[in-house]
Structures are given as C-alpha cells and as structure tokens.
Amino acid sequence: MDDMSSRITSLRSLLPDLESSLRSFTASPSNFRVVRTVNPTSTQPKTLYILDSSFNPPSRAHLLLVTSALKLSKTGEDKPHRFLLLFSTHNADKAPSPASFVERIALMTIFAEDLSRTLKIDAATGPDVKNISIDIGLTKEPYYTDKSTAIAESTPPFYSSNPIHVHLVGYDTLIRFCNPKYYTEYNPPLSALKPFFSAGHKLRVTQRPYNPNDVSSKEFGTVEDQQRYLQRIKDGQLQDQGFEPAWRDRIDMVEGTGLGISSTRIRKAAKEGEWEEVSKLCTEGVTAWIRDQQLYSEDASGKKMMG
Q1: How many domains does the structure of the chain reveal?
Q2: Is residue 228 classed as helix, strand or coil in its secondary structure?
Q3: What is the domain range of residue 103?
Q4: What CA–CA distances, in Å, run from 187 to 28, 192, 248?
Q5: Residue 226's CATH number
Q6: Is 306's pLDDT higher than 70?
C-alpha cells in the first residue's frame, strides 16, 4: 500500500473517534478543546500561532499563511512556538451546518499532516520549526477575543505556559475585528478588545490584493488602501470607539499569499471533477481526502459535506 493510500485508510478509521470527540465537546460545558495533535511533543509554547478558519476545505493559501508566520516571526513572538488549527462550531456571520463538522476535523487532520511534512523537508526552516507540534482544536466561541479567552481559561489548561496568541487572519477579518457593530453591548464598543490586547495577544494580518479569479476581493480595495486603513487605526481613528493607542503595535500586516485561491473555487472544481485544478489549490493529502470522500460532489456551496 502506498503512502497516500495508507494515510487515507488511517484517517477513515479515525472518523468514529473524531465524531465521538465532537459529540463529547458539544455536550460539555467547555468552550475550547484540543481533539488531536499532529507531531505531538511536550513543548509548552511562549507563542501560540492560531489559524482559525472554516476549513471548507483547507488550501495552499492556508499552508502559505502558516509557513510564512513560522519562518518569519515578528519581534516579541518568542520561542518555543506551537501551532493551533482552530474550528469554531459557531460562527458570527454564517449559519452552522453540523453534518459537516466531522469532515472539517478530518480535513484539518490531514492538512496538519501535510503541513508537518512540508516543514520537515523545507531547507529554510530551523529544527524548532521542523519539529513543531500542530494541535487541532474546537471552540464554541464566534469572536476572536472570546476564543483567546476560552483557550487561556480551559480546564485543565492545555497551554499551561500561558503563551501569547498570534491569530493569522486576512484583511477582511481585520475589518470585522475592528467593527464596533459586533460589540454593541460594550460602551464604548471596542473596549471589548481590552482583554485580548491586554493579555499580549496579536493579529498577523495578510493583505488581500484584488484578483480577477476572486471577485469578492475587489471590495477590499488595493493593497495601499488596506495599508492606509490599518494606519488610520494606528493613528487613532477608532479611539473614540474604544480602541486604545497602546494596542496599535499588536497588529502586524504582511504581504498577501495564495493569490486567487478561494474555498469557493476549490469546491466548484471538486464538484466538476477537475482534480488537477483541486491539486493546484489544495495540499496533496487534502486533495486525496476530498476525492476519496466525494466531498462537495452534490453542492458546490459546501453545505453537504458527507460523501
């Protein structure tokens, strides 16, 4: 049996355990739980990088986000590092589709394996990055501020070293994160961000340049527009809404990666059986799993995940 066939068979056998973990978490009072770790080590991190996504499905753009953050860490992001792939069973803007949740965790698992393999063979990564542990976690919280609180306050604490959190987000997420409309129960609204920034947590924001293959990117303007938006925040534009000047250095912006890759494009290609296209957009393991499980074969929107 070749390596990929072995991996797919192994993941298939894991599905009942993943479903059990999901049900247990859903029924528990916990707001955060790690359900699996790829390349497990005993390392307690000083910096926890977090990629929070719908993973519907994970893509090569996600891979680039992660590898870039790990290889080009910013000042203050002290070692040792650890990585968390995080999936929220609730979303502030999208209705959940519970039937797909187990498949999301399976996709996260095989993506984590692909990521670990990529880091191990990348000549540009140091030994600490090559051996990094990648956790797969679930949360019930819809907002980044509450997600970080849930991670820090988990019982027993999974990260007992109390690391700083660096959330890897796109420019579109930055806009939502700093939008007062999501925090109307606070006065001023953006004072809701105080626990997040006071704990030392950060955002690493990836620019989203306009690309003809991704029509939705047009609404975010040029890269220069995005840089100006962040600079206005740092210059105090949202101070009257509660954004404190001391927080401005907790947001870093980096160049865009994975131009033109979107989950919608992947799902459409998978539905139409364009596997060469899918393999260009997704990592090897993710592509093989989508094909094996016939994901997205009936609904290009991804609403029906089970094959």
Answers
A1: 1
A2: helix
A3: 3-262
A4: 32, 8, 20
A5: 3.40.50
A6: no
Nearest alpha carbon to residue 178 among 92, 237, 227, 253: 237
Per the CB < 8 A criterion, the answer to whether 107 and 286 are in contact is: yes
Structure tokens belonging to residue 220: 């975010």
Q: Assess contact for 267 and 293: CB atoms under 8 A.
A: no
Kindly state the greatest CA–CA separation across the chain.
62
* pLDDT tens for each residue of 219-233: 788 889 999 999 999
pLDDT higher than threshold 70 for residue 301: no
CA distances from 267 to 52, 112, 122, 302 (A): 19, 20, 28, 7
The answer as to whether 106 is a domain residue is: yes
What is the H or E stretch that residue 170 is in?
A: strand 164-170
User: β-strand 47-52 against 134-139: which pairing, if any?
Assistant: unpaired
pTM score above 0.85: yes
What is the average per-residue pLDDT within 20-36?
95
228 assigned to some structural domain: yes
Give a yes or no: residue 246 inside a domain. yes
Residue type, 92: A
Paired with 138 in beta bridges are 33, 87
